Description:
The structure holds two protein chains of two kinds.
Chain A: H1 2-19, H2 21-30, H3 34-37, H4 51-58, H5 61-91, H6 98-110, H7 114-126, H8 133-156, H9 161-169, H10 174-203, H11 206-211, H12 219-228, H13 234-254, H14 256-263
Helix pairs in contact in A: 2-13, 4-13, 5-8, 5-10, 6-8, 8-10, 10-13, 10-14, 12-13
Chain B: H1 2-21, H2 26-30, H3 34-55, E1 57-58, E2 68-69, H4 73-80, H5 82-113, H6 120-132, H7 135-146, H8 153-158, H9 164-167, H10 169-195, H11 198-206, H12 211-238, H13 243-248, H14 260-269, H15 274-306
Helix pairs in contact in B: 3-15, 4-15, 5-10, 5-12, 6-10, 7-10, 10-12, 11-12, 12-15, 14-15
Amino acid sequence: MRLGRISLTAFTWLVAILFVFPLIWMVLTAFKQEADAYTDPPRLFFTPTLDQFAGVFERGFLPYLANSGFVTVVSTLAVLVLGIPAAYALSLAPVKGTKNALGFFLSTKMLPIVAAIIPLYVISQNVQLLDNVWALIILYTAMNLPLAVWMMRSFFLEVPKEMIEAARVDGATLPTLLSRIVLPVVAPGIAATALICVIFSWTEFFYAINLTAARAGTVPVFLSGFITSEGLYWAQLSAAALLASLPVMIVGWIAQNHLVRGLSMGAVK
Amino acid sequence: MTTTAAAPPSASETAQRPQGRKGGSPWKRRAPLLPALLFVIAVTQIPFLVTVFYSFQSWNLVRPGSQHFVGFQNYIDVFADSQFRGAMLNTVVLTVVCVFVSMLLGLGLALLLDRKFTGRGVVRTLIITPFLILPAAGALLWKTTMFDPVYGLLNFVFGGETDWLSEFPLASVMTQVIWQWTPFMTLLILAGLQAQSKEVLEAAQVDGAGRGRTFLYITLPQLSRYLQLAALLGAIYIVNSFDAIYLMTQGGPGTASTNLPFYIYQRAFEGFDVGQSSAMGVIVVVLTLIVATFALRLMFRTFDVSGGVK
């Protein structure tokens, strides 16, 4: 019995390590010299170096990183500013049409984004927002808002009704009600929602690749530059991939207990 | 469908009545919702309406002044286009296979994680990580270090000189997508496993049901809502797959791994054919709406009972 448990645990570990092996390999490759990165057979032991990370920055990584950071932070803040009152309206003070509004938000997640890319391109061009971070900020806000509203709504529904009723009877206005009663209770939920928006904005590729270029490009756009570069730069690519993913990895590890709830739009705790 | 949204209003509308009588019109109470609603409508619906408009135009971006009304000609051309049908088939295959396989793998991993053991937190963190690296990074990583015919790890492990991306393009892309999405399925199914009632499981054991029977007759039925939700959400995201195809195969060789998002992208940004790519976009939306109508119904049912909404 005991032996069975130990071997099952060992098996679980083995499966997990096999599953993430491509990632482990990416981390190892990031610390190799290019010559060690592609050898036949693959090289497991080598002298680690930070050259590739330096190379990534020499290649002009910083502006892309700054764009990603700016787009992610501003769009996430915009989602919260627009989404918190909406989630409140849909959970704690619902009116006629609540269900329709929720359904509408959900339906926008089901629309294939390709169907809108052509007009978005033409519109961006006409209003001079092509290759401009603000185009991405607007789109990412709209992309994350429905998800955030659904997710925050599920947190808001956990606020004790008695607290809100008592405050209403005392004549609290909406801003007071939100800031004094509701927000302190749902703060962890809002933080989790924000982290999920951060993950989605940081990793978004389709809009970024089609609507930006060198000036407003984000980190995924920088990475895609590696497929057009001549020759093999596996070690540098691995270093870039690691650097580009690290912020989201850290955010995701912090938010892992809330990931499912966010991705399932609050359907599952 | 009704209980979800109807229950909370009935509870709090009573609370609101005093305020409402004092002159708070329904519109005042809707006010907090409006900015978000209007913003999403503007950013998501207007471009779609413009897409519909463009779909009736013949317009090529590289020929200025070429824009004119052509009625349904674009739609006729799209349906006659065998590449479009191929891309549609690829999209269906990619979505169905990836959702199904990543759910199966996710179920397996979730079952392994659903017990106490040394380092469980670490293992869970490891398993979710493929979901957290940039999809673009994941795609390039698989293209280079895994699938490369000479230096790739796959050929090192399995032997041979297979050029995975040109011999099995769609399967290679799917492998990466499945790898990326299995963590999400694992987490969702794990949440389902941990939500099942312990009493029922214990009762089954007392009654002498074996592990297999307990899983089949107790765990699986209890999990079904979580599995439905996983399939639905996985499908919503995977149907839009673009990163992996763009970065790993460019839809090729030929059109072997072209899906609808990539094909529309190609027609729009490499062929500059606004009219036809718009028509394709509209067709994709109509098809999605048909599927989504069923999906939405399912979603509301799932929300009703899964306890997400109290």
